[in-house]
Design goal:
This is Lipoprotein. There is one protein chain. By secondary structure, the chain is of the alpha+beta class. The protein has a single domain (3-207), classed as Protein Transport Mog1p, Chain A, CATH 3.40.1000. The protein has four helices and 13 strands. The strands form two sheets. It has a nine-stranded antiparallel beta sheet with strand order 1-13-7-8-9-10-6-5-4. A four-stranded antiparallel beta sheet has the order 2-3-11-12. β2 (47-52) and β3 form a beta hairpin. It is globular, with a radius of gyration of 16 Å. The two termini are 28 Å apart.
Length: 212
């Protein structure tokens, strides 16, 4: 599959980047005391886990997974709203011929031409851990047809794959989904290892401007 076709498949996962400007409240700096939260033991009556290739993705069991082949994993939430969703994309760096930084810039470039969903502000943080491993966390505020949305996204590279982990909800529900997103994030496994570990100490955080 061509690079352009790969990238065209991932745009929905970070749709809230359209026409964005950095939030004026964004900050950068050294982090002196922070640890990654270990994934909790999920209640099997409320959560289910799906094995895809060498990965495991856990999500609330009342969400509606979609049987599709465009994304690594895609699910609507439990609200009968097709505008809100959870998506995981996993792309091979060699096949798309770019790293996570190039991926973010290319998707942003594609989305800035779209005027259907407008972003009212965003922050994108580069997280550098003690072992020099990097990940990226974004929060995006967007509006479409008069409706306000909030999107959380986590981007990282693991075993030569770029992971795009994104949850889009109604803006009024952002707080309600905060713990859910954390539980999903910290329970994702690849090759029987968590993508994040409680031993991963965060050393530095800095703002990223995708428009540059």
């Amino acid at each position: 599959m061509s690079c352009n076709k790969y990238l065209s498949l991932v745009t929905v996962g970070i749709m809230s980047l359209v026409s964005c400007n950095n939030s004026p409240n964004s900050q950068s700096g050294n982090v002196t005391d922070h640890t990654i939260k270990k994934g909790i033991t999920l209640d099997s009556t409320k959560w289910k886990c799906k094995v895809i290739s060498t990965d495991v993705i856990c999500y609330p069991n009342n969400w509606k997974e979609l049987n599709q082949d465009k994304f690594f994993f895609f699910s609507y939430l439990n609200n009968n709203d097709s505008e809100t969703f959870f998506v995981v994309n996993r792309l091979n760096e060699k096949e798309i011929k770019m790293d996570v930084n190039g991926y973010l810039k290319e998707v942003y470039r594609q989305l800035t031409a779209d005027t259907i969903e407008l972003c009212e502000g965003y922050t994108l943080k580069e997280l550098t851990f003690q072992n020099n491993r990097k990940a990226y966390y974004g929060e995006f505020f967007s509006k479409k047809h008069g409706r306000s949305f909030f999107t959380r996204s986590f981007f990282l590279t693991y075993n030569s794959f770029i992971y795009d982990i994104t949850l889009k909800v109604n803006e009024r529900d952002r707080v309600n989904y905060s713990d859910i997103f954390q539980n999903i994030l910290y329970n994702i496994k690849s090759s029987n290892k968590h993508l994040f570990d409680e031993k991963d100490l965060l050393r530095n955080v800095r703002d990223i401007d995708l428009s540059n």
